[in-house]
Amino acid sequence: MKNSFFLLFILNLSLFVGCNKSTDENKENKKAKIIEVKKPNDLLPKPQMVNILVALHLAEAEVVVKNYPSDTAKMYFKKKKEEILKSKKVKPDQFKSSYEYYVNNLKDMDEIYEKVVDSLSLKEATGKYY
Asked: I need a labelling partner for 36 at 20 to 30 A (CA). Which of 60, 63, 68, 109 fits?
């Protein structure tokens, strides 16, 4: 059951990444809407972002599998996120500013999420989620 859910999660995630690729016309429209974010001085390197995002997506999947009520799920995920960042020695503001930077630099974010999907797929194939 968990493997089926995890496979569904991976497929949804890959659809999310794949759907971000758009036509030239859509890219021009998006450029007008995106606010330019300066590169933070404490920008997390891409490999570290990958590790954090993999851990966050696994935590999110855990919350969904446990089928918590909405309020409980939000509190549980928030706690898990804090634990993940603390274990990686990353301050919440540093993660947030790095994430915002990468979101506004889609080429970098695509590279990051390709590795996130690969990592999650490998974890699923080996059954080693943690």
From this structure: 60
